[in-house]
Amino acid sequence: MKMIVATCGEAADSPRAFVLQDQPVPEPQGRDILVGINAMGMNPVDTKVRTGMEGERVLGWDACGIVEAVGSEVAGFAIGDRVFYAGDLTRPGTNTEYHLVDERIVAKAPASLSDAQVAAMPLTSITAWEALFERLQFVPEPGANRGQSIMIIGGAGGVGSIATQLAHWAGLTVYATASRPETAAWCKKLGADGIVNHRKNLAEELAAAGAGQVDAIFCTTHLERHWQAMADSIRPQGKVVFIDDPEHPLDLTVFKMKSVTLVWEFMYTRSMFQTPDMAEQGKLLTRVSGLLEDGTLVSTLSETLTGLTVENIRAMHIRQESGAMVGKQVLVV
């Protein structure tokens, strides 16, 4: 089978960054299923692993494909099932023709969407769902959180685009941050009630939008830049969830007087540590599949490339690192 191997530490445009290799097709054991990859998504984690780790890695942690074989302990899937998932950061990624994945973090793909549309969704959907409904503890039912509000920082990004849709579906008043006309329009299309400019002071922008303070904040990007503004924008006893990595120590005491809950979301926690509730990711992806099938959620696919080649993987990394992505990139094999 073909796979693209990345050399960590190399710039995306380096001729040494990516190489095409041919390896035997692996055999599933235990709870693993073997998936023939039809399409794979691109996420910030791909560039972070490439630039922040050492050695060689098969990157890619989003996929849609067909189950080709199952391990002896697999109960939920059969050969021929069309599935989608975000994989496991501790294992080889999806930049390959065939891929092994634990069945507990997999769900059957929505039938009405194309492979590319489906492959854009798993990682960002898991992250957004866990952040909103597990870390922030909103109720994951339509309209169940009316009267409560949230600010989503980075509303037009991959995770922000899903979080905006899910928060709107769950009844929250959503303020999404965007700084360009096209990103603002994207957020409004996905259900944002108000747009605030993240290139300005967020607290002042929220006040100008008539929001005052919000019950929760989901910070997907530029955590340090917005740290004090988040403390000013959150209501007393509110909650803030982060996925972004700070580069320097931060002063937690700016949130103390309001008794604010600060919590991290890292969607690989369950698979990385094999937590007892690991199968919850498969369950929530099943719910996401249903929401995609009935049109409640729309795919955030914005760019599609075709062919598992070094040139295409390189182009996706360069585009991801440009800081100008709206929605998600997907490669169709």
CATH topology of the largest domain: Quinone Oxidoreductase, Chain A, domain 1
Please state the average pLDDT score: 94
Largest sheet: 7 strands, mixed
End-to-end gap: 12 Å
CATH-level-4 superfamily name of the largest domain? Medium-chain alcohol dehydrogenases, catalytic domain
Helix and strand pattern: EEEHEEEEEHHEHEHEHEHEEHHEHE
Q: Indicate how many domains the architecture comprises.
A: 2
Give a count of the beta strands, DSSP E runs of length 2 or more.
16
Text of the CATH class of the largest domain: Alpha Beta
InterPro entries: ADH-like_C, ADH-like_N, ADH_Zn_typ-1, ER, GroES-like_sf, NAD(P)-bd_dom_sf, Zinc-ADH_QOR/CCCR
Organism: Desulfoplanes formicivorans
Protein name: Zinc-type alcohol dehydrogenase-like protein
Pfam families: ADH_N, ADH_zinc_N
Summary, kept brief:
Helix content is 28%, strand content 26%.
Could you walk me through the main structural features you see in this protein, from its secondary elements to its overall organization?
This protein is α/β, with parallel strands linked by helices and 333 residues long. It has ten helices and 16 strands. It is globular, with a radius of gyration of 20 Å. Helix 3 packs across helix 4 (158-169). It has helices at residues 44-52, 115-119, 122-135, 158-169, 181-189, 202-208, 227-233, 269-273, 280-293, 310-320; strands spanning 2-7, 18-22, 32-41, 56-57, 63-70, 82-85, 98-102, 106-108, 149-153, 173-177, 194-196, 214-219, 234-242, 261-264, 301-306, 328-332. Strand 12, helix 7 and strand 13 form a beta-alpha-beta unit. It has two domains: 2-121 and 276-332, Medium-chain alcohol dehydrogenases, catalytic domain (Quinone Oxidoreductase, Chain A, domain 1, Alpha-Beta Complex); 125-264, NAD(P)-binding Rossmann-like Domain (Rossmann fold), CATH 3.40.50.720.
